[in-house]
Design brief:
The chain is of the alpha/beta class. It is 34% helix and 26% strand. The chain has 9 helices and 15 strands. The strands form 3 sheets. Strands 1, 3, 4, 5, 6, 7, 8, 14 and 15 form a 9-stranded mixed β-sheet that branches. A 4-stranded mixed β-sheet has the order 2-13-10-9. A two-stranded antiparallel ribbon has the order 11-12. Strand 3, helix 4 and strand 4 form a beta-alpha-beta unit. Helix 2 runs antiparallel to helix 8 and helix 3 packs parallel to helix 4. The longest helix is centred in the N-terminal third of the chain and has 20 residues. The chain is globular and about 65 Å long. The chain starts with 9 loop residues before the first strand and ends with a strand. The site of N,N,N-trimethyl-histidine (AVJ) has 11 residues, from strand 13.
Length: 323
């Protein structure tokens, strides 16, 4: 019975049921209306994101995936001194638990895996699948908002944080610094962090990655309105909004917006929100970092840079940091 290696999902901090509602009402009430990208990922949104990852135009996912076997080989050497005690990996915002497989495959003494994700149900299922495939790895899923301080289970192994996919790009630089501080506090001194960061590059490449021909990213963006309609009793007319994404060069970030095609009033949970024609809801930032820029950000949160891996043409970076 392999699944016995999976302990029950530990509820870390209690997540109030109405947090989504609170965030939406507050965000839509601001002069520049905004919604947090963390709400993209309901079942439909996660499915659409997986489709985005298959797109020709969307280079980050496949580029990072292709880097991971080489990175894992280097980490195996780097952590060779910990062979006896083993290595534990804490993944923040674990999603489908696919990328961890490449680390497990490349690091034989990786014997502990702690995925942290907000969706306990999905996490439990994925964790059981992983345990069946890798019975040598003890998997302890934690259901928590990974952006805060996470209480980790007792451990005797060295910890390596894992934060792939350039998810750090969703945060403002200030927020990223705070978050990296939290990761350091959660994992403790002597821990390491492997983090995927997207690079600055030709504006056209960035543009097409978020404006794909098939319109999947547009559907992904609009799905947040569908989710509000369904879960928060909203009445967004999805056809009255259009997807937009552009590279804001001075801020070094892709911005995604939903632009109202008409003047309209939308109701969410009984609250009314007026949109002018052409007014936007800012739904996502995706920051791109020069290597030195990111190393500086890491340093401001107490992390030293051990090593950076760069994909061909510097399309994507992975950093190994030390607390
Ligand atoms: C999952 C945050 C890394 O910013 O590229 C993909 C999300 N948004 N297409 C990104 C996303 C639109 C993605 N991250």
């Amino acid at each position: 019975n392999y699944s016995s290696a999976v302990t029950a999902v530990v509820p870390s901090v209690a997540v109030p049921d109405n947090l989504f509602l609170q965030d939406v009402l507050q965000g839509l009430g601001e002069p520049q209306k905004r919604l947090s990208p963390k709400y993209f990922y309901d079942a439909e949104g996660s499915h659409l994101f997986n489709q985005i990852c298959e797109l020709e135009e969307y280079y980050p996912y496949r580029t990072e995936l292709a880097m991971l076997p080489g990175v894992a080989a280097d980490l195996r050497e780097f952590f060779a001194g910990h062979q006896q005690k083993g290595l534990g990996v804490v993944e923040f915002g674990a999603g489908s638990l696919h990328k961890i497989r490449l680390l497990i495959d490349g690091i034989p003494f990786l014997n502990r895996y702690i995925p942290v994700d907000i969706c306990g149900e999905h996490l439990r299922m994925a964790s059981q699948g992983l345990s069946r495939r890798y019975p040598q790895v003890k998997v302890t899923p934690i259901e928590a908002d990974f952006t805060g301080y996470v209480t980790l289970p007792e451990r005797s192994t060295r910890l390596l944080g894992f934060f792939p996919g350039s998810t750090i790009g969703n945060m403002l630089p200030d927020e990223a610094i705070h978050f990296m501080h939290h990761m350091r506090d959660s994992m403790g001194m002597g821990s390491h962090l492997l983090i995927g960061v997207d690079t600055k590059k030709d504006t056209r490449i960035l543009h097409w990655a978020y404006n794909d021909q098939a319109g999947i990213t547009a559907r992904f963006n609009k799905n947040i309105l569908k989710r509000i309609n369904r879960e928060l009793d909203g009445n967004f007319d999805i056809g009255c909004f259009k997807h937009e994404a552009w590279y804001n060069k001075s801020l070094g970030r892709i911005e995604m917006h939903l632009r109202s095609k008409v003047a309209q009033t939308v109701t969410v949970a009984g609250e009314h929100f007026f949109f002018c024609e052409d007014e936007t809801i800012h739904t996502e930032n995706s920051y791109k970092y020069h290597p030195e820029e990111f190393a500086r950000l890491a340093a401001m949160s107490g992390w030293g840079t051990v090593k950076r891996w760069a994909a061909a043409d510097d399309m994507f970076s992975m950093f190994l940091l030390t607390a």
